[in-house]
Amino acid sequence: MLKSILYGAIFVLALPAGAAAGETASLLKAIDGAFAHYREAVSYLRTGNTDLAAIELESMGDGWKSVAAEYGTTPPDGFDGNALYDRVMSQTGPTLDEALALIDAGKAEAARDLLVPLRGEMVQFRAESRIYTLTDCLFEASTAMDGLFAYKGKPPAHDDWTARADAVGKAAVYGATLERCDALAIDDVKADPEFRRLVDGAIASSARIAEAIGAKDDGLLYRLLIELRSLDRLMFYRFG
Q: Which residues does UniProt assign to the signal peptide (predicted)?
């Protein structure tokens, strides 16, 4: 519901008033409704709960069928000329069917590997039409987090100033991206206690990476990275 309001707010401003803006916002709302089940499915697959993952994936499939039926052959004006439109509309459904078949065959990890790229594909899909939402910003933050998290198992050597600077820089990029996501969110999302806990906590912890690196405290660095990865995942599951 909150993100539906967000999409409407963005596209009334970004597109001319009238049916085109409304249809574009409606498509984004429908996609977001389907992908709410996607986030749940990916979460359940990560924790090994395949039964609930399958239920969520079936719900996503139903939602995507409605999206494809209404918008599959006639893009709203906001997606006119989008080079990825036909592929996204025609191939997302079969991908979901294949993932369900893999779950039924007891291949949960393969199903998750198939599903995970869909998040990035939808970001590219919107970007092709110069559309940027909170969901896209949180994906950008997660990508930055991936680079930073590489230091969990291999902290920078205390005498390697290049690696230490790189870790601090990656943490700064992650924190700055989250600040941008926070600025992008509408007031109702900003005021959501869960959003505040996750975003504020991640920004604060990312700022402490420099402290851990400066103190050459590998234990603190490890704990901060574990915390940040957890917060980042929760932001995706809940808001992105």
A: 1-19
